[in-house]
Design a protein that fits this description.
Blueprint: E1 18-19, E2 25-31, H1 36-51, E3 56-62, H2 72-83, H3 88-97, H4 104-113, H5 121-126, H6 131-143, E4 151-154, E5 157-159, H7 165-198
Parallel strand pairs: 2-3
Antiparallel strand pairs: 1-3, 2-4, 4-5
């Protein structure tokens, strides 16, 4: 009897986030690592995470524009590879800092800088081990109607204005207000039920 090869569980981008797990607001960005705009907005996201600490969780989803940036696809795969060792955000920031130098061999060097220990990193990258995870993100991006990047969603509602600190802050603040009014409405609905039980 042949032994069944163990399935390798790969942590996908939809499971990776920074911030509080049960935060009332989820901020999602679809982007890629060769884009100047995405690199600029990465700094804005860092400010937002500080400003709304404990109130938001942030997810980065991959949407490489391979027609313009040929190296962005492998860069995205390398970030997913780093995530398997819990080094996604370290790799994410290193890739943006080195966005003009994203050849496959350079990605191996960047992974070391990010603290990735995997000896098979380059081999897995060349063999496209993490390709499906990036393709799933691209498919989701298309399903959400994304045409340009960076594209942002606040609690699954697309932010249609330019993703500046002011615009994204306003969208997050508005979403926080909505979630507060929903939770207070739910609390009020529960209160009469409790009162009836006492009676």
């Amino acid at each position: 009897m042949a032994l069944k090869k163990e399935d390798i569980i790969i942590i996908g981008p939809e499971e990776i986030f920074v911030g509080k797990k049960d935060a009332p607001v989820t901020l999602i960005e679809f982007g890629e690592y060769e884009s100047e705009e995405c690199a600029k907005v990465n700094e804005v996201v860092k400010q937002l995470l500080e400003e709304f600490d404990g109130k938001i969780r942030f997810q980065f989803r991959h949407f490489p524009l391979t027609m313009i940036h040929q190296r962005s696809l492998k860069a995205s795969e390398s970030a997913v590879a780093a995530a398997q060792e819990g080094k996604f955000w370290e790799m994410h920031n290193v890739l943006f800092q080195n966005r003009r130098n994203l050849g496959t061999t350079s990605l191996k060097l960047h992974s070391k800088e990010a603290g990735v220990k995997n000896k098979k990193f380059l081999e897995e990258l060349v063999n496209g081990v993490y390709g499906w995870q990036v393709q799933d993100d691209i498919k989701e991006g298309h399903n959400r109607g994304i045409k340009e990047i960076p594209a942002f969603f606040v609690n699954d509602v697309q932010v249609t204005v330019k993703p500046t600190f002011a615009n994204l802050s306003a969208a997050i603040t508005s979403a926080l207000r909505k979630s507060k009014s929903k939770s207070s409405a739910a609390a009020k609905a529960k209160a009469p039920a409790r009162a009836k039980q006492r009676a």
